[in-house]
Amino acid sequence: MAYALEDEFGDIIGKAKRGQGLSHSQVAGRAGITEAQLSQMENYTLKPTEDQVYKIADVLNLDGPKLLDIAMERWVPEPVQPGYDEALEVVTVSAKVGDYPVNAYLLICKQTNEAAIIDTAANPDVILRKVREIGVKPTVILLTHAHGDHANGLPELEKATGCPTYIHENEPKPRSTQQFRLLKHGDEVSIGKLKVKVLDTPGHTPGGCSFHTRSTVIVGDAIFAGSVGGANISYTDEISSVGDHVLSLPDDVKIFPGHGPATTVGEEKAHNPFF
Ligand SMILES: [Fe+2]
Fold this sequence. Notes:
Blueprint: H1 9-19, H2 24-31, H3 35-42, H4 50-59, H5 64-71, E1 88-97, E2 100-109, E3 114-118, H6 124-134, E4 137-142, H7 148-151, H8 154-161, E5 165-168, E6 181-183, E7 188-191, E8 194-200, E9 209-213, E10 216-220, E11 223-224, E12 227-228, H9 235-246, E13 254-257, E14 263-264, H10 265-271
Parallel strand pairs: 3-4, 4-5, 5-6, 10-13
Antiparallel strand pairs: 1-2, 2-3, 7-8, 8-9, 9-10, 11-12, 13-14
Helix pairs in contact: 2-3, 2-4, 4-5, 6-8
Fe (ii) ion binds near residues 145, 150 and 204.
């Protein structure tokens, strides 16, 4: 499918189903469809009717109209334009882990040209090449979480940049050459003149966190445009922490996820069926 979102209808209902501990047969039964139909909808061989989307949304505690827009491929977020903030720049570094695209980011203080490397995209070479290409000076490495597609290659990045690495205190620790600097909700890390605040966004992982400064938040796999990361640890924590800490930010705040396109708080409040 050419639809630009990280997750589409089938991914969304699968995540909501697993997250809430509902069985395939429970969801199908309560939504008035067969298990085979539900499977076909999840793997995109059957397009649901409007009525079926609303019933499934109801069973899964998802927002019906928002889910319908995604099922009918009627919504994608407006592209985030570079230069939206005079004090900073966010450069997306896209790489592939196997066939699976992943985003790391450079968060740059325009005044000092200092930068944070946020996640590794499991591809230190691509990141280091981008750092050289745009001529910024990395001062810290920040990890949203420790999954391999976000944290592999950390030792190489540390050796090449000499930067300290920050990770949430509750997160499992990936391979590293140094002692981590540990973060908790509300902590601040300086990048040049920027003050970056740590927001707890666990649920996908135990100590997943997001990094917020001015009108920018980098969220790892806590929330995607129109979806959320798989709730491996706690669906309730994931939904409530993203709702409380990310979607409570002003509507014009730009959200940069670990997979898929950038979005905004306003777009997600209006279109993300999990909220
Ligand atoms: Fe992840």
